[in-house]
Every structure is written in structure tokens, then in C-alpha cells.
Design goal:
Distance between the termini of chain B: 38 Å
Strand order of the largest sheet of chain A: 9-11-10-13-14-15
Shape of chain B: globular
Number of helices of chain A: 12
Number of domains of chain B: 1
CATH topology of the largest domain in chain A: Rossmann fold
Largest interface: A-B, 29 and 38 residues
Strand order of the largest sheet of chain B: 2-1-3-4-8-7-9-10
Largest sheet of chain A: 6 strands, mixed
CATH architecture of the largest domain in chain A: 3-Layer(aba) Sandwich
Number of domains of chain A: 2
CATH architecture of chain B: 3-Layer(aba) Sandwich
Number of strands of chain A: 15
Radius of gyration of chain B: 19 Å
Strand content of chain A: 15-25%
Oligomer: heterodimer
CATH class of chain B: Alpha Beta
CATH class of the largest domain in chain A: Alpha Beta
Order of helices and strands of chain A: EHEHEHEHEHEEHEHEEHEEHEHEHEH
CATH topology of chain B: Rossmann fold
Number of helices of chain B: 11
Shape of chain A: globular
Chain lengths: ~350, ~300
């Protein structure tokens, strides 16, 4: 059923459709509306769940699934969107999916439960959703029926339980003699989860008829000379930009990095190797180093393709990313710049 | 007189063979508590000595479901488990316990503990108070007593050790108005077990802070743990008190031994006995004990 709905509300309804037994949530801008809606859904008796009003985000995070509503990191204090927060925890073993629009944010939550609960994965999943740009925006979304979600997500039967009849020690401490191996296993599981992410995306398409890509989505990339890569809501702008520039005869394509952890290196190499240049739009800075996604992409390309990869840092702290920003990024990349901030207000820097 | 062989019933919950130090007050307290709790429970455990000495993978001393997550969130994890058990209709029989040391409880995990109590979860939180971060080598915590020398509040030419009194966390917990708060000591076995039994008979949040002397951290012979723990109570520095719904309902009367008797055998206080300035601090410590005696009516 199609609904005109705010992104936060769409996510709250998606979570309710997944019928969690326990919700622990804490409101922080810009994810507050999600928590408010979930509270109301439980208060209205639409969902029979234990609702824990925890005292911090930290306490809420002892979970298998998180909506990572993206917001800039202090300092200076900013509540607006970029990806510095989730990118900063990219190496912790969380899987990370980035939603392009509210429909995808909704769909990703349903998929994320299935991925996290898969016995081959058993790692926490974070659905990254751009703060304000998605959470506070009304869009038309197709809300699945409860029966459809129930069929897609059968009652979860965990492999390991805290059961007095069959006690396990979970989270034991491991010394140097085995920690190395424990992390090796975690890395193997994290890498192998890529196939589960793809599989779940395919199953979701069969069940719900919607497809937003699996680990990546290439848009008009087939004969593209310039491919621009983005994560999250910027991809919508990017697709429009590709349409507009194609109409003017430019051979450009847009590529959505939908799953950032695990990193789909193989898929990206295959998708961009035929292009003349690649531009990565990054809403995060590897402080003191370089663009995070661009450097991982270059590493994946190493020895397999010589296509140049440029990194344009864009949209920090809620700065809009427009066609102009993307044009500037492509132009500077074409001139051989490899690491730069696009859309910088140079006059503001001079004043300072 | 024929000697009776020493026998005791092994608790299924917490089994021998773990790696606690000789004379560890905490290990003895955990064993006694788990004897009372029995097998039908889930334990969450903050980072600390207990976690490390009881679960060196692939060994485990736990015969009940046990989970460690972080230093900060034993109370939050317990809250999630309690909510899940409630949803499954299993909370009538299965007890949820959260264990933490004083660092995890008084310092790092205090916000999570406060939230758990305020929300009214049916959990028994036990703080094993050995008065510093012992697992990592005796760094001070908010529960370190006045004038104790630790590696981060060391005694020196310009320092008499910890310069602030011990945080009164049990009173802070009682101020939440939760149904039951108690302090206990590993040295008073029957009292400790009675309090655990009492706590388990009450639904809602319960907080128990157990004083557990630490031979390497405090610097006394391993055989003296029980004796040291008794002196802490009998001098008034660690009063045994029970609060119900925020009010003090019972205290253990003490013999009022001078604090020097408790302090002198411990390396962490030995600097106080070496200088005139140190001896002046002994009077301050006696004043802290006297204040407890007055406040809780520890002496008839």
C-alpha cells in the first residue's frame, strides 16, 4: 500500500512489521522521530513488544540491528548529515548498508533482520540513513503487508541462547593464544556475509517486487567514461545528474555503493574497470589520510585496472550536494586532481 | 575430639577451577551468592576481575547462562535479557543477575545502572567492591577509600594517597526508591546469603554491594581476607545496611574497633603510619567511620 510518509515514520513502521520482541531505543537528533513513532506504535497496542526506554544511545546499542541515522561528528557541534559517524566505526565488525531513499530505508530494515539472523552471518547490521535528508522528508513509500513480512521473516530461532537448561558462556575473554584466530573467523564471516546480502536482496525482490541493487547498483554505467560513486541519499541526486548529463551527450554513469561493509571490491572493480575515470563522492574524511571509500576502491583496483580514482569530499555537516558540486568534482578529477574538497566556500576560508 | 571432614555442596552456578588469586574475596562471594541463586538464572557480567578469571576461553567456571558485553553496560544487557524473558513468559522462574566490580558499577556503568533501576527491571545487580580497578593493577575508582594508595592515587612526598572519600553508591541507589538495597561483606557469610535470598524474593530492581577484600590489591596475606573484611565492618568504614523503598530498615551493629586495626595490616595504608602527616590522616579516617556510626546507628 502506497503512503505519503516521513522517512522516520517509514522506518518505525518497517521495524514494527518485523515484529521485534524487544525494542530498546533512545532519541537523539536526527533519529528522534523514529523513536517517537515506535513508542506510539507500542503505546497504541499495534505491536506487542517489550519497549525499553534506555538512558543512552550506548545502552540502546546492545542489539543486532541499528538504524544508524547519519550525523556529523563534533567538533564543532553539528546535528546535520554526513557520514563521518558510521565511517568511523567501519572496522568494528558491523555490516553497513546505506539507504538511497525512504523506500530503501524501509526495505533495508526488513532485509537487515534476515541478514543479521542468518546462521552464516550472526553479525550486527547497521542501516545507515541520512539524517534530515531522509529522516525528516516525506516521500511516497510502498508499505508492505504484515503477512508478506511474516512470510519473509519467519519467527527467529537463535543458534545460541541464554537458556538455563543449556547454559553457554558468551563473550568469554580470549588471550593471545586464540584471539588472533577468533578475529580471523570474524573476518571470514564478515567477508562471506556479502553473498548473504546479495541473496537476501534477490529474495526480497521475489517477495516484494522491489530492487535497489544488492551490494552495488550501477545506473547508466554500461558505456560510461566517467562513473561517479556515492553512498546514501546523494545517489538520488547522482542518478538525476546522470540523466541530465546523458541528455547533453556526456557519457556518465552513477554507481550506488549500497553495502559498504563487507566491502564489495570485486563487484566495484568489474563495474568501473571499463571507465576512463572514477569519481567518489565522500561525505567523510579519513582525517590525516584521504577519502575512505576511494582508498579502498584503489586498493581493490590495484594490479587489475589502471582507471584513475578521484576522491571528492562533499556535503559535510549538511551541506547540500547539487549538480554543481558533482560537475565540479568531475571537472577537477578530469584535470588530474585525486583528493579534494568539492564545494568549498573559499571566500569563507579567506575571511577566517 | 574427632575432626569432621570439611564438606560443602558445589554450586552448579559457579564452579571451581577458575583462575582467581589465592584468597580472592570476590570469588568466595560469587560462589556463596550462586549457591543461593541456584541454576535457573541468567548472569550478565561487566568487564573486570570476575569476567577474566572465570572465562579464559575455552574454559568457563559458569554452569549457568552467562554473558559479557562491555565494562559499561552489564545493567543494560541485563535489562534487555529481562525484557526478553518477560516477553517469553519466563520471568516468573528465571532470575536475571548483573555482576560488576566497583569500577564498572560506581564509575563506568553508573548511568546504565541508574537507568536500569529507574525503569524498574526485575534484576539483582551485585557490585563486588574491592575498592579499585584490581584486574588492571590497582588503579583508583570512585569506590577507593580516603587515603588509600593506588597506582593512580599513589602516596608520595606530596600525596597521602586517594584524596576523596569513597562514593556512597548504595545510598545513591536507595535514593532511586527501588525496593531493596543492601551492603554485605564476604566475611559475614550468613548475612550475605540472607540478603541474597531476601533480594531474590522481591520483584523489581535490587542492588547489593558486597565488600570483597583483595590480597594483592590491598597488600595483606591471602589467609587474612575474612579477617580484614570483618575489621572493615567492625570499625564502621564499611557499614552493613539495608534499605527498603529508599528507607534504612536494618543495620548490623558493630564492635567499634579503632580504624587503625583495620588499616595497619594493609600495604595500601602503610604510608599513614610512617609520618606525622599520615597519622593526622588516621584521625580523618576515624572521623569517617564515626560519621557512619552516627548516621546509621551502628553502635547501641
Amino acid at each position: 500500500m502506497k503512503k505519503m510518509i516521513e522517512g522516520s515514520r517509514a522506518v518505525a513502521e518497517a521495524v514494527a512489521l518485523c515484529r521485534p520482541d524487544v525494542i530498546s531505543a533512545y532519541p537523539i537528533t536526527p533519529q528522534t522521530h523514529i523513536v517517537e513513532e515506535l513508542s506510539q506504535i507500542v503505546a497504541d497496542g499495534q505491536l506487542d513488544a517489550e519497549y525499553i526506554r534506555v538512558e543512552s544511545e550506548h545502552s540502546a546499542a546492545s542489539a543486532c540491528l541499528i538504524t544508524g541515522v547519519n550525523r556529523a561528528l563534533s567538533a564543532p557541534l553539528s546535528i546535520w548529515n554526513d557520514h563521518q559517524d558510521t565511517m568511523g566505526i567501519r572496522d568494528t565488525g558491523w555490516l553497513q548498508l546505506y539507504a538511497e531513499n525512504n523506500q530503501e530505508a524501509l526495505d533495508m530494515h526488513i532485509q537487515a533482520y534476515k541478514i543479521a539472523e542468518d546462521d552464516r552471518v550472526l553479525l550486527p547490521v547497521m542501516v545507515c540513513m541520512d539524517g534530515f535528508i531522509l529522516t525528516h522528508t516525506y516521500e511516497s513509500v510502498d508499505m508492505p503487508e504484515q503477512e508478506q513480512v511474516d512470510a519473509f521473516l519467519p519467527k527467529y530461532d537463535p543458534l545460541y541462547r541464554l537458556d538455563p537448561e543449556d547454559p553457554y558462556t558468551l563473550g568469554a575473554y580470549i588471550g593471545p593464544e586464540l584471539f588472533h584466530e577468533a578475529r580471523y573467523v570474524m573476518q571470514q564471516d564478515c567477508l562471506a556475509s556479502k553473498e548473504v546480502v546479495k541473496e537476501v536482496a534477490r529474495e526480497f525482490k521475489e517477495a516484494f517486487g522491489r530492487w535497489g541493487g544488492d551490494v552495488i547498483e550501477a545506473y547508466r554505467c554500461d558505456d560510461a567514461e566517467t562513473i561517479v560513486i556515492g553512498l546514501g541519499s546523494v545517489v538520488g541526486t547522482l542518478k538525476d545528474w546522470a540523466d541530465a548529463r546523458r541528455a547533453e551527450g556526456q557519457k556518465v554513469g552513477a554507481l550506488k555503493l549500497r553495502c559498504f561493509r563487507p566491502f564489495p571490491g570485486e563487484e566495484l572493480v568489474e563495474a568501473v574497470s571499463g571507465a576512463k575515470q572514477v569519481v567518489v563522492l565522500e561525505k567523510a574524511v579519513g582525517m590525516g589520510a584521504q577519502g575512505i571509500v576511494a582508498s579502498e576502491l584503489r586498493s581493490a583496483l590495484y594490479g587489475r585496472s589502471t582507471v584513475p580514482v578521484s576522491c571528492a569530499i562533499v556535503g559535510l555537516g549538511g551541506r547540500d550536494v547539487t549538480f554543481n558540486t558533482i560537475d565540479e568534482a568531475c571537472k577537477r578529477a578530469g584535470a588530474g586532481e585525486r583528493e579534494f574538497f568539492a564545494g568549498l566556500r573559499t571566500e569563507a576560508l579567506e575571511e577566517a | 575430639m574427632a575432626t569432621q571432614p570439611f564438606t560443602y555442596e558445589l554450586s552448579r552456578g559457579f564452579l571451581p577451577g577458575h583462575r582467581a588469586c589465592a584468597g580472592c574475596g570476590q570469588a568466595a562471594a560469587v560462589r556463596m551468592i550462586m549457591e543461593v541463586v541456584g541454576p535457573d538464572c541468567v548472569v550478565t557480567n561487566a568487564t573486570g576481575c570476575l569476567e577474566v578469571f572465570s572465562t579464559p576461553y575455552p574454559e568457563s567456571a559458569w554452569g549457568v547462562p552467562w554473558i559479557h558485553s562491555l565494562f559499561e553496560n552489564a545493567a543494560s544487557v541485563a535489562a534487555g535479557i529481562e525484557a526478553a524473558l518477560r516477553k517469553q513468559g519466563r520471568l516468573e522462574t528465571t532470575r536475571v543477575l548483573a555482576f560488576g566490580g566497583d569500577g564498572a558499577t560506581v564509575d563506568i556503568g553508573f548511568g546504565a545502572l541508574s537507568g536500569m533501576m529507574e525503569r524498574g527491571h526485575d534484576i539483582l545487580y551485585v557490585c563486588y567492591d574491592n575498592e579499585a580497578y584490581m584486574n588492571t593493577g590497582v588503579q583508583r575508582s570512585g569506590s577507593t577509600p580516603f587515603a588509600a594508595s593506588t597506582t593512580t592515587s599513589p602516596a608520595g612526598r606530596a600525596s597521602f594517597g586517594e584524596d576523596r572519600p569513597k562514593k556512597n553508591l548504595p545510598a545513591i541507589c536507595a535514593a532511586h526508591g527501588i525496593p531493596y538495597v543492601a551492603t554485605a561483606s564476604v566475611s559475614f557469610f550468613a548475612d550475605l546469603k540472607r540478603k541474597v535470598r531476601k533480594a531474590l524474593g522481591i520483584r523489581g530492581p535490587k542492588y547489593l554491594q558486597v565488600h570483597v577484600p583483595c590480597p594483592p590489591g590491598w597488600g595483606y596475606p591471602e589467609k587474612d581476607t575474612v579477617e580484614i573484611g570483618k575489621l572493615a565492618v567492625e570499625c564502621g568504614l564499611f557499614p552493613l545496611v539495608e534499605w527498603e523503598d529508599g528507607e534504612v530498615t536494618r543495620v548490623r551493629k558493630i564492635k567499634k574497633v579503632p580504624v587503625e586495626e583495620y588499616l595497619k595490616p594493609q600495604r595500601r595504608f602503610r604510608h599513614l603510619f610512617r609520618t606525622e602527616e599520615g597519622k593526622a590522616k588516621l584521625a580523618d579516617i576515624q572521623a569517617l567511620a564515626d560519621a557512619n556510626i552516627e548516621k546509621y546507628g551502628l553502635v547501641d
